[in-house]
Design brief:
- The chain is α/β, with parallel strands linked by helices.
- It has one domain.
- 25% of the residues lie in helices and 41% in strands.
- The chain has 9 helices and 20 strands.
- A 9-stranded mixed β-sheet has the order 3-6-8-10-12-14-16-18-20. The chain has a 9-stranded mixed β-sheet with strand order 4-5-7-9-11-13-15-17-19, covered by helices on one side.
- A hairpin with a 2-residue loop joins strand 1 and strand 2.
- Helix 2 packs antiparallel against helix 5, helix 7 packs across helix 8 and helix 8 packs antiparallel against helix 9.
- About 3% of the residues have low confidence.
């Protein structure tokens, strides 16, 4: 690879992070193993469409972006009755054995270079533990990034017959951003560029339900890499909501393995890019048991010189009898300079399957615009109304009222900028 942060990263820095968080020896060993693996790991796979590789992660200057021992952040956590929503240190103290059992069991710490880097350096940790039989809503996590780089890790464990709904917001601290921009103005360098990495692992017991919603609104000088992956057990459900408004570049992977009979997953995605923002969005579901159901639905809007590429994969295994799997992706382009492509895929190894996929990329319908403007609606207002209406099918899939309202508000703000 042309640029690698491990040239300046040291084992002593990894040990310092682990010591600051008062971690047990097994976790330090896991971090150091990830650090040592960096030498041989490749960058994450990016989406390629015929004739084009859309995202170049190798081009990022990780040595400049990543400062391992600077991880200033604000972390707000709101729990619900019966659920433990704990900082990393608290969780290790109260549920050390649980964490040892599940850490790295869903997302392989050596999955790729950037995941291993996050494993070695993460400092912003949260554990959500839902005991058997507990039903909980309105668990909230707010992460505010107040440093040049931040590596965030979240573990969700839902035991048998439990349920939880989690809303995570990701933002950048305004004061730090302003200071960095001032430094950039003085030096002429891009000192305000940042790097954010987030890994989420979700584990469910039998008949458990997890819905995890993320609303990413990082500063538009932030490079953002995220992996969210869940394992759904028998009669269990893992649902994801992936909202992306901020960042300069986002590489997002949202994945579920349907491991238990009659397990289910829904992945809902929404993004709105403008200026020169870039979104590389991947959704994937593996059907590995009988009677499993998946639904992938994503909608995005692009303006100015923004770019997006989407890949959705429904992978049906040989033992996945009686599978139902559906996928829909639509991108609306508001500018002739914006670019988009989509690559929906079906991999079917069992004939007892109902599956479909579709993807569209297009501009605002001229007939719709004519209809509205001919009835006295200002062209700009007409366009905004059509964009808001375009997102409705996705917003209707968002069961969390607060997340739906927040996402809708950010869409309206983007339209009026």
């Amino acid at each position: 690879m042309s640029t690698q942060v491990h040239a300046t990263l040291t084992a002593e820095q990894v040990e310092q992070i682990s010591a600051d968080l008062d971690e047990p020896e097994w976790l330090l060993e896991t971090r150091l193993a990830a650090f040592e693996a960096l030498e041989d790991l490749e960058m994450p796979d990016v989406i390629q469409t015929p004739g084009r590789k859309w995202t170049n992660l190798d081009a990022l200057d990780y040595e400049t972006l990543v400062d391992p021992l600077e991880y200033a952040q604000d972390k707000d956590r709101v729990d619900a009755e019966g659920v433990d929503v704990l900082s990393w240190a608290e969780a290790l103290d109260e549920h050390g054995d649980l964490i040892e059992d599940h850490f790295g069991s869903v997302v392989n710490p050596h999955r790729d270079y950037l995941t291993a880097l996050s494993t070695a350096l993460f400092s912003a940790g949260t554990v959500v533990y839902v005991p058997e039989g507990v039903d909980a809503e309105d668990v909230k996590i707010r992460t505010t990034m107040n440093s040049r780089s931040l590596f965030n890790y979240t573990l969700v464990v839902a035991e048998d017959s439990s349920s939880v709904t989690i809303l995570e917001r990701q933002t950048t601290g305004e004061d730090v951003e302003s200071e960095a921009r001032s430094a950039s103005d003085v030096s002429g360098e891009t000192a305000s560029e940042r790097y954010y990495s987030g890994v989420v692992e979700a584990v469910t017991g039998e008949n458990a339900y997890v819905q995890y919603g993320t609303l990413q609104n990082l500063s538009e000088e932030t490079y953002n890499y995220q992996v969210k992956r869940g394992h759904a057990g028998t009669y269990s459900t893992v649902d994801w909501i992936d909202g992306n408004i901020g960042s300069r570049l986002t590489k997002s992977n949202v994945e579920t393995r349907l491991l238990g009979d009659s397990s289910e997953s829904q992945i809902v995605g929404a993004f709105f890019g403008h200026d020169d923002q870039h979104f590389d969005i991947a959704s994937r579901v593996w059907h590995e048991a009988e009677h499993t159901v998946a639904d992938l639905v994503t909608r995005g809007v692009l303006d100015d010189q923004a770019r997006s590429v989407y890949e959705g994969v429904q992978d049906v295994g040989t033992e996945a009898w009686d599978t139902s799997s559906y996928q829909r992706e639509n991108t609306l382009m508001l500018s002739d300079e914006s670019e988009a492509d989509a690559s929906p895929k079906l991999i079917i190894n069992n004939h007892d399957t109902e599956a479909s996929h579709s993807a569209t990329v297009g501009q605002v319908d001229e007939e719709d615009m004519f209809y509205m403007t001919s009835r006295g609606v200002d062209p700009e207002r007409a366009k905004n109304m059509l964009v808001e209406g375009f997102f409705v099918p996705v917003l209707d899939e968002v069961a969390v009222d607060e997340l739906r309202d927040d996402l809708d508000d950010l869409i309206v703000q983007r339209l009026t900028q």
